[in-house]
Design goal:
The structure is a single chain. The protein starts with a helix and ends with a helix. The protein contains 16 helices and 48 strands. Helix 5 crosses helix 7, helix 8 runs antiparallel to helix 11 and helix 12 packs across helix 16. The longest helix is centred in the N-terminal third of the chain and has 39 residues.
Length: 961
């Protein structure tokens, strides 16, 4: 009886003691928890805009002296580097109470300790689980240009990369109509906008680095399409086979291409409708061959695609020759992969009609014993020909979604339409990745899937995003990747966190390069680990880049700028280069920047021209130094040749008198080839009166004019549509709604809402080829030779105006007219009795300072008489002829919406007039020197005969007594 109460008292005492200890132990733990909450709630980083961070949970083990801290997803959106990771740990420990701040602390974000989220390129001890290590493709590349005069041994030589330019026109099943996948805002839509980065910039940069680049969307902007095939041909096209004793052409056991209809409905596959041909190989050249001669409907540039079937015995060095206006280019195609689809070789210039210098030839010559296969060859991207709901899109194929390009490329139905024709929207999104998986199936990088064996090792999707700022702040860049699929593994067995490294490196590079290039702080947004099909489905490392917001005016002001596009593309290319080198453990070299100060002069020997230029270093990339150069040559209206490798910054060319030669120069190193220089031209007359110096000062590239006030905002295509690089499909139509209070609405009254009148138009821009147009007019006028140079070469003293009796200064649509140095050089030239022709549309309106007015009025002898902006220039009269210039955007030449009216300063006189209104369009001055100045660009004169007549009159004026 007595024992039980005693036991109860003892038990109660022990419980009280333990409870007291537990409560006292919980006090420090609660303190730790509060400190952790405060740390993450107050956490901010200058590296990225990641939103609000918070503590998810933590695990504190006093016995093991360990603290595991788990942050929310936002904390993992930031980039981690050795420096900021160390700082985060240091600051966290400083915020914690003792003795916990001496514990072994691990911070987790995005499913990993944050130190493991540092990209491998920055790690001393790399995470091998997200590297290729021994996984590498060592065989012959899918396509190899054998005429290319350099090898990018430390670039991307032989690497295979897939990328795409977001969305395209698609059939909206529930509406029964073709639609863009994103709204028309600020003169564009994402479907068009991303085209203007990927096709003219990113793809060429990667290819210049030696990569084989594939896009599941059509890349060629040529509306025409000619297909030559053993089964069917277009127009007067011709297919020819030549056999040899050993190389006899036979029909393939596998089906091939045949174009049996002009429009294809859902599920129809042109690569199952015909036959293919094959022949045994021989080591001796050109014993047997197949020949495709297209009937080209219109002179221009055409992408060339070949096709074949991969057969038992297919060789990896099938020899193709492309005959084009610039000569002959040789390719080796690995027919052991990629059979049964279109295989892009390159884009070349072809003349109209059928020509023996316009064709493709496949030889049975090979170093390997086996077979070569011949199927259809396609010239040009063409128009969309996939019917959905009884209608086609009516647009060029390159503007359609990947779903339709995949069908035309012979992809299996389940690849491009797993929804079985019921939902084109999801089919299009998913087909981009599914096509790449099918194309790469069976390769070392995608061994788990069946497919065509092309060793693509990464994918990249460029998009623009939504989001806006009422304060005109930039939205910036977002990167997306996916790790939560396939047990965290890619198809070759490496960690899906390899995709985070790719996304992280691309975002870091963009923030650095854009900020440095434009003198701003470019916003880096988040690194999202989310379930997007374009990053979930690919079996290789992949990312989506949401470059900027197409809904935000501040972003689009930069986004429409071609120089911004170049900067973005170069940054993306560099990040892919560095990422690939890291994945394979190799060194890399960045391809150089384009050369500058390009000039052509008459050589010291008879009938020679001396070309010279200067290399340009990249202050952001120490490896991007030029080692050699390639000089490309064009004869007359032909195409450029395959180039000549030159080790110095000068080159002497022997010319035939009476012919116009054009040249462009690129810089090369072991990382690849730069973008080209401007194009300069030269001509030696058979009986020359003298030599005209053509100076190209038209370097301008720009987006459209802007309208900005407290109440309205947007782009004004009518006042100034801007100057694209070469050409652009980026614009959908003029902006119609400018009301800033309607920001964020995607309806007709929403800020930025735009029309559709420009969709499908390839708007002409600056071709950097205007010395040729001026030069051809000089040649046709007769009597004079000519050479040409860049304005930088004149300003930097490499070319002297005083060496030439006549100078033709091309100002074009340049708004930075007449630098102080150029004003002084022209003044000296005139005072020494020179003769100068100047033409441009802003040579009066942009010369407003006292010194500039003194130069134009006292030396060139004109004053600004107003602009024709807002007026129709109509027909221009003068020099016993009349002509027009393009005032609005078009596909032939850049628009001149506001040519200048030039008032002559006595004793100068007016030479051309705008009608209606009889405004002075040009002036001439004859004194101790002579000037002839036009308030519109000479190259914008529509009509070859008109340009010749005007140039003849101008040269006659300079030569008269």
């Amino acid at each position: 009886m007595f024992i039980k109460p005693a036991k109860k008292i003892i038990t109660s005492f022990l419980f009280l003691a333990v409870s007291t200890f537990w409560i006292s132990a919980q006090e420090p733990d609660r303190n730790v928890e509060q400190r952790l909450k405060d740390f993450f709630t107050n956490f901010e980083t200058s590296y990225a805009n990641i939103g609000k961070c918070r503590l998810d949970r933590y695990e504190l083990n006093h016995s093991k002296k360990a603290l595991h801290v788990y942050a929310n997803a936002n904390f993992g959106y930031q980039p981690f580097t050795p420096e900021n990771t160390e700082a985060i740990y240091r600051l966290l420990k400083q915020s914690l109470p003792g003795p916990v701040n001496y514990y072994d602390i691990t911070i987790y974000a995005d499913g990993k300790p944050i130190e493991e989220l540092i990209p491998n390129i920055l790690q001393k001890k790399q995470d091998k689980s997200r590297l290729w290590q021994r996984i590498d493709y060592k065989g012959a590349p899918w396509i190899q240009n054998m005429s290319r005069p350099y090898l990018a041994s430390k670039g991307l030589e032989g690497r295979h990369i897939a990328l795409w330019q977001s969305h395209g026109k698609y059939y909206k099943n529930n509406k029964g109509s073709w639609e863009w996948q994103r709204p028309r805002l600020f003169c564009t839509t994402e479907d068009l906008f991303t085209q203007s980065f990927v096709v003219p910039y990113i793809i060429p940069m990667l290819e210049n680095a030696g990569a084989v680049v594939y896009t599941p969307r059509e890349r060629d902007r040529q509306r025409n399409e000619v297909i030559v095939d053993n089964n069917t041909v277009t127009g007067k096209s011709i297919y020819i086979e030549e056999k040899s004793r050993k190389g006899k052409w036979k029909t393939s056991p596998l089906a091939g291409f045949a174009r049996k209809r002009s429009v294809y409905t859902d599920g129809q596959n042109p690569f199952r409708d015909g036959t293919a041909r094959f022949a045994a190989t021989e080591k001796k050249p050109e014993k047997a061959f197949a020949q495709w001669i297209p009937d080209i409907p219109e002179t221009g540039k055409y992408a060339v695609y070949v096709s074949y079937q991969t057969l038992p015995g297919s060789v990896s060095d099938a020899k193709y020759l492309v005959f084009h206006k610039g000569g002959v280019t040789e390719f080796k195609v690995n027919q052991q992969m990629g059979g049964g689809t279109w295989v892009y070789l390159g884009t070349f210039e072809f003349d109209k009609g059928t020509n023996d210098y316009g064709m493709v030839v496949l030889s049975n010559e090979s170093k390997q014993k086996g077979v070569v296969c011949a199927d259809a060859v396609r010239f040009g991207g063409g128009m969309g020909n996939i019917s959905r709901g009884g209608s086609i899109s009516g647009l060029p194929r390159y503007l359609e979604g990947a779903r339709y390009a995949a069908q035309w490329a012979g992809m299996p139905y389940g690849i491009y339409s797993p929804a079985e024709g019921k939902n084109d929207y999801t089919d299009d999104i998913n087909s981009r990745s599914r096509v790449i998986n099918y194309m790469s199936g069976g390769s070392v990088y995608n061994p788990q899937e069946q497919g065509l064996g092309v060793p693509f090792e990464m994918t990249f999707g460029l998009h623009s995003d939504a989001g806006f700022s009422k304060e005109d702040e930039l939205i910036g860049t977002l990167g997306i990747y996916t790790t939560g699929s396939n047990n965290g593994k890619l198809n070759a067995g490496i960690s899906r966190y390899a995709s985070r490294d790719l996304a992280d490196m691309v975002l870091t590079g963009l923030q650095r390069d854009i900020s440095a290039g434009f003198g701003i702080q470019w916003p880096r947004r988040s690194l999202w680990n989310r379930n997007y099909s374009e990053t979930r489905l690919p079996g290789v490392p992949s990312m989506i880049l949401e470059l900027l917001s197409h809904q935000n005016f501040a972003d689009l002001k930069l986004g429409h700028n071609p120089r911004f596009k170049f900067t973005v593309a170069r940054s993306v290319y560099k990040s892919i280069l560095k990422y690939t080198a890291t994945m394979h453990g190799t060194d890399y070299v960045v391809q150089p920047l384009p050369v500058s100060n390009f000039s052509i002069a008459e050589g010291s020997k008879k009938n020679t021209f001396r070309l010279s230029w200067q290399a340009v270093d990249d202050p952001l990339e120490p490896t991007a130094k030029a080692r050699e150069y390639i000089v490309y040559t064009r004869l007359g209206h032909g195409g450029f040749d395959n180039g000549t490798l030159v080790r110095d910054t000068k080159y002497t060319f022997e010319a035939e008198p009476g012919l116009v030669y054009s040249f462009k120069v690129t810089a090369v190193n072991r990382g690849g080839e730069s973008f080209p220089s401007e194009i300069l031209s030269a001509y030696k007359a058979k009986k020359s009166k003298g030599t005209v110096l053509i100076v190209n000062a038209f370097d301008r590239l720009s987006g459209p004019a802007t309208i900005e006030s407290n109440f309205i905002q947007g782009f004004d295509l009518k006042t100034d549509p801007g100057i694209p690089y070469i050409s652009t499909p980026a614009y959908c139509g003029a902006q119609q709604s400018f009301d800033r209070s309607r920001i964020g609405r995607e309806t007709k009254d929403g800020l930025g809402y735009s029309g559709s009148e420009l969709e499908g138009m390839l708007i002409a821009g600056n071709t950097f080829d205007y010395p040729f147009i001026h030069g051809k007019a000089i040649q046709s006028a007769g009597g004079y030779s000519f050479v040409s140079c860049s304005d930088e070469a004149v300003e930097n003293g490499f070319v002297r105006l005083t060496d030439y009796p006549v100078t033709d200064l091309i100002m074009g649509a340049e708004k930075q007219a007449f630098s102080p140095i150029m004003q002084q050089l022209i003044t000296d030239y005139c005072r020494r009795g020179g003769n100068i022709l100047i033409s441009g549309s802003y040579i009066g309106s942009n010369m407003n300072s006292p010194s500039a007015l003194g130069f134009t009025e006292n030396i060139l002898k004109y004053s600004f008489g107003g602009s024709m902006g807002g007026k129709t220039s109509g027909t221009i009269y003068g020099a016993n002829t009349h002509f027009t210039i393009p005032c609005t955007v078009n596909e032939k030449t850049y628009a001149v919406p506001a040519p200048d009216c030039l008032t002559p300063v006595a004793p100068a006189y007016s030479t051309f007039i705008y009608t209606p209104g009889n405004y002075s369009a040009g002036i001439a001055y004859k004194g101790n020197y002579r000037t002839f100045v036009l308030g519109f660009p000479f190259e914008s004169i529509e009509g070859v005969q008109q340009r010749t007549r005007i140039m003849s009159a101008i040269l006659g004026f300079f030569g008269s007594k």
